[in-house]
Amino acid sequence: LEDVVGSEITTLSYPHGAQNDDVVRAVRQAGFTAAACSACGTYRSDDEHLRIPRVDIWSTDSASTFVAKTRGDWDHVLP
């Protein structure tokens, strides 16, 4: 993939968000610097850089809800 895009790939999204300690360890050893999982929540610590949680954006969200979610207004209700 790096040959195709012409640059180093240092981030990933776990397939279906699935990960565990063994997978995270392999991702770290492979040299990735950040990875997103499917856990709902907010990114609060650099310690989570290989398990970055997500805020779900739904097709039914209004424009104002989309903006609020991406601005962080929902962070207080998430784990």
Poorly predicted regions are none
Helix- and strand-based class?
A: alpha/beta
Major beta sheet, strand line-up: 1-2-3
SSE pattern, N- to C-terminal = HEHEEH
Helix count? 3
The major sheet is characterized as:
3 strands, parallel
Number of strands: 3
Compute the CA-based radius of gyration: 15 Å
| SS strand fraction | 15-25%
Amount of helix: 25-40%
Mean of residue pLDDT values: 89
**Straight-line distance between termini:** 34 Å
Shape, principal axes of CA atoms: globular
The multimeric state of the shown protein is: single chain
Task: Summarize the structure in words.
The chain is of the alpha/beta class and 79 residues long. The protein has helices at 2-5, 21-29, 63-71, and strands spanning 11-13, 34-40, 52-54. 5% of the residues are buried. A 3-stranded parallel sheet has the order 1-2-3, with no helix packed on it. The mean pLDDT is 89.
